[in-house]
Design goal:
The protein is mainly α and 234 residues long. It folds into two domains: 158 residues, no CATH class; 52 residues, no CATH class. Helices cover 76% and strands 0% of the residues. The protein starts with 5 loop residues before the first helix and ends with a helix. The relative contact order is 0.16.
Length: 234
């Protein structure tokens, strides 16, 4: 890979700053929570580098502390991260032939998606390189926060009550920003209405998987229409 142009690096860094503000704080919360469960800084670093799943990492603390089986951990991971099924639908066109596709797919978190979903890139920049840099900067902020949280948790006593809600709060903030800036709100409305319908039909304990399946089905059916809208907006 050739050396990236300094302006592309700078633009990617600037775009990642709002995520930094959330990820460092939330990563600190994760590191403190994991330290409180008896797992040190090495675990915080490894989980944030290799798993990098935000809300699933918070859930993972409970799974580790409770001695959950491999099957229970796998099923929980599928349920928590099922929303990425419909993220992928809207990014297929951009990532299908991307030069850095494996990492771009791995690093597509909620917040990174909210930055890259509009498809824009600095004028004259390689779009794939720009997306790679944004994704990498976002993960760096998360890893940094996780390590700092673990180190702080080792020397300063913290109450971890309520920390697990922090990823939910960040997701709500990201959704709100996307709603205000998106040109097409049909995918967001599909998610909201589909989730509400499944919540009413299946109850709070069983709605997640049906909701994700319903949203994925609807967005798949709407994909040609969404593609035409995206092309018209360019």
């Amino acid at each position: 890979m050739s050396k990236p142009d300094g302006s592309v690096v700078r633009q990617a860094l600037i775009r990642s700053v709002p995520v930094m503000a959330g990820y460092v704080v939330l990563g600190i919360g994760f590191g403190i929570l994991l330290r409180g469960a008896g797992y040190g800084v090495g675990w915080s670093f490894a989980m944030s580098l290799l798993i990098y799943a935000g809300s699933m990492q918070f859930v993972g603390v409970s799974l580790l502390a409770g001695g959950a089986s491999l099957l229970a951990a796998a099923l929980t991971t599928v349920m928590v991260n099922a929303r990425h099924l419909f993220y992928s639908i809207s990014m297929i066109g951009r990532y299908q032939n991307a030069k850095y596709k494996p990492y771009l797919i791995f690093a597509l978190t909620d917040e990174t998606y909210s930055i890259l979903s509009d498809g824009s890139a600095p004028e004259g920049a390689d779009p794939d390189l720009y997306r790679l840099l944004v994704s990498a900067f976002d993960q760096c902020w998360w890893v940094t926060g996780s390590v700092l949280g673990s180190l702080l948790g080792a020397v300063i006593p913290f109450s971890t009550q309520g920390i697990e809600f922090s990823m939910t709060a960040l997701f709500i903030a990201s959704f709100t920003q996307q709603w205000l800036t998106a040109k097409d709100r049909l995918p967001a409305l599909t998610g909201l209405l589909g989730t509400l319908a499944c919540l009413l039909a299946f109850g709070p304990e069983r709605f997640l998987i049906p909701a994700m399946l319903l949203i994925t089905l609807v967005l798949t059916l709407l994909r040609p229409r969404l593609g035409r809208r995206e092309e018209a907006a360019r």
